[in-house]
Amino acid sequence: MLTFTPLEKPVSDIQATLNERGSRYGSFADQGRIEQNIKRAMQDSPNWEALPDDSKSALEMIATKVSRILKGDPEYDDSWRDIAGYAALIVNRLAA
């Protein structure tokens, strides 16, 4: 039976997660470059400063998901669902 010291198992679990994400989304550095370029374009637009914080956060999360689609697996439906979910949060607030 394998036993782990308190730090070995969490590190092993983290590495397994990183390996899975890397196989789905590709290099974190490449995906991060795409994500930051999208975010810079959003922040450089005329309405950015006037947006409420939740709108900014939703757009930033959407940028993350878009960058994962562009760099990684574009057929992974979870990324598309997340985009719809973040947009729905703002639509729900606007409709309230």
Descriptive terms for the model:
96 residues; mainly alpha
Tell me what the structure shows:
The protein starts with 7 loop residues before the first helix and ends with a helix. The protein is an all-alpha fold. The chain is 75% helix and 0% strand. The mean pLDDT is 92. The protein is built from 4 helices and no strands.
Mean pLDDT score: 92
Largest sheet: none
**How many angstroms does the end-to-end distance come to?**
56 Å
Report Rg: 17 Å
Count, helices:
4
Give the SSE map:
Blueprint: H1 8-25, H2 28-43, H3 53-71, H4 77-95
In short:
With 96 residues, this protein is an all-alpha fold. It has helices spanning 8-25, 28-43, 53-71, 77-95.
